[in-house]
Amino acid sequence: MKARICLLGLALVCSACAAPSLRYKTEINRLSAAGKFREADERVTAKKNKLYKKKDAVLFYLDRAVLLHDAQDPAASDEMLASAQAYIDELYAKSVSASAGRLLINDLTTPYYAANYERALTYYYRAQNFLQRGDVSSAAVEARRAVFFLDHLRADKRKGYNDDPFVQYFASLVFESVGQLSDARIARQNAFNAYRRLGGKLGVSAPEFSVPQNAGELGEVIIFHYNGLLPLKKTQTVQVAWSEAAAMASSPQETTDSVSPEVQNALAAGLFGSAVTLSYPVLVPQPFRVASSFVEAGGQRYVTQKVADFAGAAKMDLDEKLPGIWFRTATRAVAKQVAAAQARQAARSAANDDTVGDLAGMFVSALGAALEKADTRQWFTLPAEVRMTRLFLTPKTQDIKLLFRDGYGNIIGEHVFENVPVERGGRIYLHHRTAN
Length: 436
Description:
- The termini are far apart.
- Helices cover 51% and strands 19% of the residues.
- It has helices at 2-14, 22-33, 37-46, 57-70, 74-91, 101-104, 116-132, 136-156, 165-177, 181-202, 242-250, 261-269, 310-351, 354-371; strands spanning 219-227, 232-241, 275-284, 292-297, 300-303, 305-309, 385-393, 396-405, 411-422, 427-434.
């Protein structure tokens, strides 16, 4: 019992290492919506070792990487992504269940383990950064790493997010750019398969772009329009009947988690009250005005197509994890009740005073409640969606205009890519972010 109380007491200090707050994320999003990506990155950097502790190093690098990418600083963005990938590789060589605090304190005691869709996107963003610097060969290396990761993911998972149609499609384009046509064909087929299988849940369908017969005499420009804001995670609390909490805690959804004998005994005996308060993460949609976009170039108009829905991927990921979250939350609630009962009994016996026992039990209960926090960490600087179009233009240096529409079809903004060097038989990748 003393060991359990000491663990909870120590955890009170550790609990100060909270996830980036909803208020903080909203502040960064406001800067992004205003196009102030550099300033947003400076704010994130200032929070290192404050909101981003050592266990959240992956998250710190990922959040910065997108802001720097959107600020058109591919070198700095790639440095962040390389660091993130190194940490991810190190973390996934270990067991996520290794931390006892995960079942006794809260999910925030473990390092940040990037979701599968986030891991896939690290390869995508690194490839884009290389393309922006004209290094197509290195971009192809990242594209190959992406499809390798997704191949293994499909082999390991039968349901849910087990492939990424957009990343596969993008990889096929990069393979084409370096003349690896067989790899491009395989990635393209994997992309279409994934669009058919997951497109409904992700809110996207396979892109349809027409390639003119004289494409070899023209130059191609591929434009990626990153749009919107990812839904933000926040903590939600709910009271459930004791019987429901017992069912959740006694039926683990994650085979690597285990329930202590004390908790099992408490469950069997139904020792505590009629209700238990549980905390869990929920996604809160973030409004943005831009609903669609199109491109004007060479006297023609090209409508962008929605090819990726990161918001949908975030929802899929959370839905898959919720059973395990509920299990751990319910188990912790029971364990903390056990600790409170043990503290109450021990203090009562030691002091031979019921009042002292009650105070000890109240203290441990309050401590346990204070420690119960939902894990709201996420790569929140990602856009909500990606829109894309492919242009085939007369070879020459020219300006390309990207225009944005709201939900009513009104043009509410534009961005001009100036002096784009379109070369015969060449291909250029451009990107722009809107978050308003």
